[in-house]
Specification:
The chain is an alpha/beta fold. It is built from 11 helices and 8 strands. The protein starts with 12 loop residues before the first strand and ends in a 50-residue tail after the last helix. This is Putative decarboxylase.
Length: 303
């Protein structure tokens, strides 16, 4: 059969992705990407270190980034994203900016990181007080909070799992339980950290229950990378991706000042209709919420 009349495959825009060696959620990234965009992934070299601040520093070294970016440039991406939250916040705000500069220098292509994309996304939705959920240990979670503080973001509550490996195996139910424990007090949004933590399907559920925008590491990475090339990320009802959806939680949390001209309010069918679930355990004033779960793995699979 002669198919030459078809003229070849549909032209594609390219997004380069530098991921840590243990990244297991390639498919999740693709779910935010429209059909006319292709992802080109490369991984950092393997190092025999568990998830920790040491690993975060190793996978974000400029020499490592330089090699990864040069490899990606062989397929001419329009933008390159470094898809690792801890690797891009471990050096603070200055470290994240230096990483972007190093990637641009290596490939002469616009570049961004997950942590930089997070700050951009928080500004987009007008959130300055957020709850944080992570699969990390306490020390890595503390480093994330330090990074956010440098950027002018207040962490109102947090929960973490204390894992050092196999993060991609965490089920959605544990993410939901952590979110319920972390959201306390006046909070503008929830952030679920770690690009190796599955979040795509749980975001709409949590936005409906908590009545606030819910951001995740992979979501903000893809949103920022696609926006950099003038493309809209796709996905179910998510406040970051849909300005109409955003009006519901923003109004409820005070993250926006009244209605925006030309933007309709939430419809009766909006997913934010349900009341928020009460937190499992209210922390004492001035203290962090305890990590979830306190002394067990919360039903996680064996690691």
């Amino acid at each position: 059969m002669d198919v030459s009349f078809l003229g070849g495959p549909q032209p594609q825009l390219g997004v380069g992705v530098v991921a840590p060696f243990d990244f297991a959620l390639d498919r999740e990234l693709w779910r935010w990407v429209p059909d006319d965009v292709s992802l080109h992934l490369t991984r950092t070299p393997f190092v025999p270190v568990e998830v920790s601040l040491d690993l975060a520093r190793m996978v974000s070294e400029h020499e490592t980034l330089d090699a990864a970016v040069q490899a990606l440039c062989a397929v001419s991406p329009q933008v390159i994203s470094y898809a690792c939250t801890s690797g891009s916040f471990v050096g603070g705000v200055a470290g994240e900016r230096a990483m972007c500069a190093a990637m641009v220098q290596a490939g002469e292509v616009p570049s961004l990181t997950t942590s930089g994309a997070l700050i951009e996304a928080l500004r987009e939705i007008g959130a300055r007080r957020i709850a944080v959920v992570t699969p990390y240990t306490k020390s890595v979670t503390d480093s994330l909070e330090d990074y956010l503080g440098e950027a002018g973001i207040t962490v109102t509550g947090r929960a973490y799992l204390g894992l050092t490996r196999h993060i991609w195996k965490v089920p959605y139910r544990d993410v939901v339980d952590m979110a319920r424990a972390a959201v306390v007090g006046a909070t503008d949004a929830l952030f679920i950290s770690c690009t190796n933590l599955p979040t795509y399907d749980v975001i709409p559920q949590l936005e409906a229950e908590l009545r606030m925008p819910v951001l995740s590491a992979n979501q903000v990475t893809m949103w920022a990378a696609l926006r950099a090339i003038g493309v809209q990320a796709v996905g179910p009802y998510q406040a970051l991706l849909d300005p109409v959806a955003r009006r519901g939680p923003a109004a409820m949390t005070g993250a926006a000042d009244g209605p925006v001209e030309g933007v309709p309010g939430p419809t009766p069918e909006a997913a934010f209709a349900g009341p928020p679930a009460p937190p499992e355990g209210e922390p004492l004033d001035g203290l962090d919420p305890p990590p979830y779960p306190p002394d067990d793995t919360g039903g996680l699979p064996p690691v």
